[in-house]
Amino acid sequence: MTHFYEDLQRITIGTLTFLTIFFVFVGSGPILIVFLIVGNTYIKAVILLYVVWYIFECVQNVTDQGGRRTCQWVRNWGLWKWFLNYFPVNLVKTADLPPDRNYLVCIFPHGWLSIGAFLIFASNHSKWSTLFPGIRPRFTTLDGLTSNAAGLIVGGVREQRLTDHDSYKFVLKTRKGFVRIALKTGASLVPAISFGENNTFEQNSWKILSFRGRVPINTVVGAPIHVEENISPTEEEVSEVHTLFCKQIRELFEEHKSKYVENSEHVMLEFV
Asked: Exposed (0-12), middle (13-18) or buried (19+): which is 184, by Cβ within 10 Å?
C-alpha cells in the first residue's frame, strides 16, 4: 500500500507539474481549445463558465484592486499537502512577526515554478499558521497588499531565466519597486530564501526541462525591516531601505547556506 501511495503521489505531482509548465510557457488558451473540441458537454460547460468569469474579472479590473477574497476551500485542498510532503517543503522561522502589522515577504529565488513560495503562501497545509500565529499569508503581485503577509517573488521572469542548480542569482541590484510599495503602505519588508528551489528541475542543451523528483525545499524567513508609511518616498529614501534589505538578505543567506546547500563554501550569493 505504501508503494502504491508513493507511485500515485509521483504520478499526480508529475502530471500537475507538466500542466503547470505548459500553462506558464505556452498559456492556457491551447489547453482550453483542446478540451472544447474533445471534451464532453459537462467539460465544455465548465470551460465556457470559466471564460465568462475570466472576462468579467478583466472588465472589473479585479487584479488592480487587490484581487478577490481568498478561497479557503481551495487553500485546504489535500493536493497541496501531497506536494508539501513529496519534496518536502519546509518553513524555517528566524524571528517573530507581530500580528499587528502588515508584511511584504520578498522571496528569492524565483526558480522555474516557485514551488516553495506557492505551497507556503497559497495553501493552508504549511507550518505558517503555527510559526506565525495571527498572520494571514497570501500570494500577491505589486498591484496591492490585501493580507497581513503578502508573498512576492521579486525577481520575476528575469530571475527565472537565471535558474541553475545550486545557483543563487537574485535580481535585486536595481529592482526597487517592492521597496517603494512597502514605504507607501507602511508594510514591513521580510526577506525570505527558498534553498533548493533552483534544484527542482534541470535544463538540457535543447532548453528542455526535466523534473528531478524529490528535492528538499527549505524556505527561511528572515527578520522584518520595519518602515514608516510614506505616501511619496524620495529616491534617496527608497535607496536607503533597499540597501538595508540587500544587506539583510545577504546575511540571511550566509547564515543558513551551510545547512541547506551542498559544498556551501563554494556557493556565493550574487545580485544582478
From this structure: middle
Pick the closest to residue 95 from 220, 184, 240 (CA basis). Answer: 220
Three cell numbers, residue 198: 533552483
* Cα Dmax for the chain: 61
Cβ(156)–Cβ(272) below 8 Å = no
Q: At what angle do helices 235-260 and 177-185 cross, to 10 degrees?
A: 110
Place of cell 492556457: 28
Q: pLDDT (tens digit, 9 = 90+) per residue, 126-169?
A: 999 999 998 988 876 444 445 589 999 999 989 999 999 999 99
Do the beta carbons of residue 140 and residue 150 sit within 8 Å?
yes
Residue pLDDT, tens place only, 66-124: 555 566 777 888 878 888 888 899 999 999 999 989 999 999 999 988 999 999 988 88
Q: At what angle do helices 41-59 and 28-38 cross, to 10 degrees?
A: 150
What does the DSSP 8-state code read for residue 225?
Answer: B
